[in-house]
Amino acid sequence: MPRSSSMSTASANPFVGRHDVGHASAPSKFGMLSSRSIIPVAGIILLAIVGAFAWHKWIAPEFLPRNFGVVQVGAIYRSAQHSPRVLRQLCGEYHIKTILDLGGAAGFDSKTQAQREVAADLGIERFEFLLPSDGTGDPEKYALALQLMTDPRRQPVLVHCGAGAQRTSTAVILYRTVIEGKSVAEAYPESFAYNHHPDEWELLAYLADNLPRIRELYWASAASAPQSSPSDHDLNTAAGR
User: Fold this and answer.
1) Burial classification of residue 17, based on how many CB atoms lie within 10 Å of its CB (0-12 exposed, 13-18 middle, 19 or more buried)
2) Which of 118, 119, 186, 188 is nearest to 154 (CA)?
3) What are the residues facing 127 on neighbouring strands?
4) Co-location of 87 and 152 in the same domain
5) What is the pLDDT of residues 61-98, one digit of tens each?
6) Which of 38, 111, 135, 180 could form a disulfide with 166 if both were Cys (CB 3.0 to 4.6 A apart)?
7) What total of structural domains would you count in the chain?
8) Reading across the β-sheet that carries 125-128, which strands appear in turn?
9) Residues 54 and 89 in one domain
10) Closest Cα partner for 84 from 55, 115, 125?
11) Which domain holds residue 53?
12) Are residues 94 and 208 in contact, defined by beta-carbon separation less than 8 angstroms?
């Protein structure tokens, strides 16, 4: 009788045992399919990351302006250093007559040399200032840059450095304060739109120490301009070339 009861129970539950075996094998098959599908997805993600890096690092700078902005319409523009292709495009579009490179290179530098050749080919005056990359440096050079920026005979002017964030922002803040009469507190936030970060305090400290001197130098040169306008040779010498 017990044996008969056992058989009855088994027949009443025909999926006991079979269901367990099938359930155990399913994860293995699912896991195999998942690992196979993850590999191409990971490859696509990796390619996308590499492609985005290559675009921003090498491709885009060859064809698109970097950190470009208008300081005064028709007179003063700002940017980062550009490829020869983009520089030609900007100079043509905005009728640039003078380029102020607040960076430049003391020795031979292929990028700077390419910029020099473009300017020479287009008949554009170019001045290099060799200023430090943190937006500080010789106050006399910044006063001279401001003098060139505001000279109607040399406008439209393109002012740039390597990234267009520090030295160029200093020059623009000087223009806003010395020429337009704004306070540093009013002029400084504009630099944030051009990748200058508020925690880079050197620029503000430099302005606090040197703005009065730069203002004095600029207005002294402006007062003497009608009697004695410096030659391009003198300006290039003063700029550091």
Assistant:
1) exposed
2) 119
3) 100
4) yes
5) 565 889 999 999 999 999 999 999 999 999 999 999 99
6) 135
7) 2
8) 69-72, 76-79, 157-160, 98-101, 125-128
9) no
10) 115
11) 1-63
12) no
